[in-house]
């Protein structure tokens, strides 16, 4: 008779936590089994010995065996064997590492509720009954139903995480369940709790993930979730994640494939607030000449919003050097962006020190600002529950319950309303739209985090930005808000072509997005759009940071949805860095596209702040920074550019933008109007030069002639009207 899987793994567990005498215990125990089980026992002994050696090294501490509960605060010290065995990472149902073909079920109601939909946190479409529903749901309501996962190799299973069905219309979840294990998918053993079959507590609602740890971690290839009871007014529906460590099979003559990782020696783990500060400090200590950490404000609960600046002259805006920013963690539970920016800080520092030409060029030619956590309060709430147990929404909002991505002023509708009321678009500002009055009031529902970021934008002349989110694989570009509050409608900006280029640059170089074989995250096929989409065409977002950046500042900004899993397990972070490293770098390089230059005063040679730069056929102007320098992002082509400023005569140039990845320099020199020069001279009490007197006299004569011409035209029109009136009266008489 085949020995019980749970008995065997109990022996394994004991052997893993003991010293060398543990191996002797295993030897003595296995002698009691019959010779028909010798092969399996030998495999088990070898697996135990391999797992005993599963001590994390410096490069694996926070990947393969990091704790599932982030509240344990991962550290660099070695994890003991017992913790290594108990704390295994997810197999990857949520992150899609587990393929659809590896998931089977006893039955299912229809394809849209098939076993492939039984993934933790998977989201359904708006309509029930389509191909993309929010769970696996059994066709039959009895205790013989099961959802099965094939791990493809011997795996030490340690736990199951269960969730109910995601649906607007239905309430379905499993309240209790059993776990069954097998090595061949034919013979199954139910996990035992002592002498009784273990009953695991499931869900009490549809969304809260519930962790069930196996009483004894068990090695097998297949695992089944066997629902026993379910919500009385619902049916058998669930979403799941499986926890397990790979156990190498000594009978396999081929070496196991290595776990996906990264060649970069970075700190791949989830960092809470204190750990994030510590890491940023360590980067500044390693690269003091190119880094600076500063704060832009505090969260509602008082946590500082830290920014890492990376530049060859940190702390100083340099004329001609564009300002770039990445913002992550607007939604606190979308944690991947936070870790990618922390990785990026380390990477830029290390590669700069190595002399990496690409990185050196970026650092010396660009002023880079990285805000890894815009919503630190939300992140701390999600981090406390852990990567798999935070669910889809815990930590999304600020501590006040505000969605920061809807908290910026809605400038779109202010602009569109003004355009409809005006006689022509040219009479309405298409840039630097001022803050609405309601938004500036003290009692306005504006989060302190939002106010801090707005103030930051107003202080720094940012040119390009990206806002890092999670939960999908797509890049969206403005406008995010639709006209007339349509739920979905393509709503392009005046720079739609360049925004599409920006989105394509990131999406096409992202290894996960660019994979033609990848599975849909939830229910929308963004691959049909080359993994980019207009924000409004996806879903309307009034008050988004992207739209505000474009309409209130010079900054072009897109949103990057980085992964299907909002809060990937730490074991996934090296692979996610590999997926995004090139994208993060190449996107930053786009800040050097288009034209740039300095707008100067002809007489003083000083830069003119707030000079307006208008590109023909682009109904979106920009303004020069405080030193008169400007950057206008454009695709290759020939452009007519007109620049003007208050008190100056306008100037026009034709500027050529080539295919090269650097901006074309297009400087402008403006001449003050005679009236402006006269005002400045009188203010200083100076003598009016003769050339200015002549120009003013010529200007007065020109105005006199123009006004006389208008008066004469008006008199002639009045005479005609009187003649017509007399002629009409004479005919009537």
The figure for the number of domains is 3
Distance between the termini: 129 Å
Rounded to an integer in angstroms, the radius of gyration calculated over CA atoms is 33 Å
Helix content: 25-40%
Query: What is the C-level CATH assignment of the largest domain?
Result: Alpha Beta
What does the overall shape look like?
elongated
Unreliably modeled segments: 1-86
- CATH fold group of the largest domain: Aminopeptidase
CATH homologous superfamily heading of the largest domain? Zn peptidases
Q: Averaged pLDDT, please?
A: 85
Q: Strand tally, please?
A: 26
Largest sheet: 8 strands, antiparallel
Class per helix and strand makeup = alpha+beta
The total of helices stands at 17
Q: What fraction strand?
A: 15-25%
CATH level-two architecture of the largest domain = 3-Layer(aba) Sandwich
Domain F5/8 type C: 86-245
Main location: secreted
InterPro entries: CarboxyPept-like_regulatory (IPR008969), CARBOXYPEPT_ZN_1 (IPR057246), CARBOXYPEPT_ZN_2 (IPR057247), FA58C (IPR000421), Galactose-bd-like_sf (IPR008979), Peptidase_M14 (IPR000834), Peptidase_M14_domain (IPR050753)
GO molecular function: metallocarboxypeptidase activity; zinc ion binding
């Amino acid at each position: 008779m085949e020995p019980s899987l749970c008995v065997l793994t109990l022996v394994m567990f004991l052997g893993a936590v003991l010293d060398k005498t543990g191996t002797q215990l295993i030897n003595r125990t296995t002698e009691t089994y019959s010779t028909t089980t010798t092969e399996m026992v030998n495999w088990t002994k070898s697996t135990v010995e391999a797992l005993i050696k599963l001590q994390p090294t410096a490069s694996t501490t926070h990947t393969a065996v990091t704790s599932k509960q982030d509240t344990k605060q991962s550290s660099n010290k070695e994890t003991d064997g017992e913790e290594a065995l108990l704390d295994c990472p997810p197999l990857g149902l949520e992150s899609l590492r587990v393929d659809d073909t590896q998931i089977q079920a006893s039955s299912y109601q229809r394809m849209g509720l098939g076993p492939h939909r039984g993934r933790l946190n998977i989201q359904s479409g708006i309509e029930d009954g389509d191909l993309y529903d929010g769970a696996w749901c059994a066709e039959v309501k009895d205790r013989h139903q099961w959802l099965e996962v094939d791990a493809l190799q011997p795996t030490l299973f340690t736990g199951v995480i269960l969730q109910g069905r995601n649906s607007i219309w239905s309430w379905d979840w499993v309240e209790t369940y059993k776990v069954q294990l097998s090595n061949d998918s034919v013979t199954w053993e139910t996990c035992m709790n002592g002498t009784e079959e273990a009953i695991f507590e499931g869900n009490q609602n549809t969304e809260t993930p519930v962790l069930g740890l196996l009483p004894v971690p068990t090695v097998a290839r297949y695992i089944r979730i066997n629902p026993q009871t379910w919500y009385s007014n619902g049916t058998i529906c669930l979403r799941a994640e499986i926890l397990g460590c790979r156990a190498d099979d000594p009978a396999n003559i081929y070496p196991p494939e290595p776990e996906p990782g990264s060649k970069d020696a970075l700190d791949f783990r989830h960092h809470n607030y204190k750990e994030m500060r510590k890491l940023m400090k360590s980067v500044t200590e390693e690269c003091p000449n190119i880094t600076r950490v500063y704060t832009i404000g505090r969260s509602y609960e008082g946590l500082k919003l830290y920014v890492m600046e990376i530049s060859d002259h940190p702390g100083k805006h340099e004329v001609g050097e564009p300002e770039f920013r990445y913002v992550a963690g607007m939604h606190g539970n979308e944690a991947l962006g936070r870790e990618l920016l922390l990785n990026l800080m380390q990477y830029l520092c290390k590669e700069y020190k190595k002399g990496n030409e690409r990185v050196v060029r970026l650092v010396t030619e660009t002023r880079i600002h990285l805000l890894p956590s815009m919503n630190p309060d939300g992140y701390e709430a999600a981090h406390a529950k852990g990567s798999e147990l935070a669910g889809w929404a815990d930590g999304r909002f600020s501590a006040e319950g505000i969605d920061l991505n809807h908290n910026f002023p809605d400038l779109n509708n202010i602009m569109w309303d003004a355009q409809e009321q005006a006689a022509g678009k040219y009479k309405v500002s298409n840039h630097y739209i001022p803050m609405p009055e309601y938004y500036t009031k003290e009692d306005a529902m504006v989060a302190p985090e939002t106010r801090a970021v707005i103030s930051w934008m107003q202080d720094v002349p940012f040119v390009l930005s990206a806002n890092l989110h999670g939960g999908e694989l797509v890049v969206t570009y403005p406008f995010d808000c639709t006209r007339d509050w349509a739920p979905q409608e393509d709503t392009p900006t005046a720079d739609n072509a360049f925004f599409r280029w920006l989105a394509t640059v990131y999406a096409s170089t992202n290894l996960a997005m660019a994979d033609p074989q990848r599975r849909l995250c939830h229910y929308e096929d963004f691959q049909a759009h080359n993994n980019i989409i207009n924000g409004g065409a996806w879903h309307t977002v009034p008050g988004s940071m992207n739209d505000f950046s474009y309409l209130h500042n010079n900054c072009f900004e897109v949103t990057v949805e980085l992964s299907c899993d909002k809060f990937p397990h730490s074991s996934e972070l090296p692979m996610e860095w590999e997926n995004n490293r090139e994208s993060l770098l190449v996107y930053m390089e786009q800040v050097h596209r288009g034209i740039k230059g300095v707008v100067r005063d002809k007489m003083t040679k000083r830069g003119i702040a707030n000079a307006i730069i208008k590109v023909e056929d682009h109904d979106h102007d920009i303004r020069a920074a405080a030193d008169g320098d400007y950057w206008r992002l454009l695709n290759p082509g020939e452009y007519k550019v007109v620049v003007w400023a208050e008190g100056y005569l306008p100037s026009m140039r034709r500027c050529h933008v080539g295919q090269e990845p650097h901006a074309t320099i297009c400087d402008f020199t403006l001449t003050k109007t005679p009236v402006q020069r006269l005002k400045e001279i009188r203010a200083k009490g100076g003598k009016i030069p003769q050339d200015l007197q002549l120009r003013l006299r010529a200007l007065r004569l020109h105005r006199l002639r123009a006004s006389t011409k208008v008066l004469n035209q008006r008199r002639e029109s009045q005479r005609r009207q009187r003649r017509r009136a007399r002629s009409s009266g004479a005919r009537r008489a």
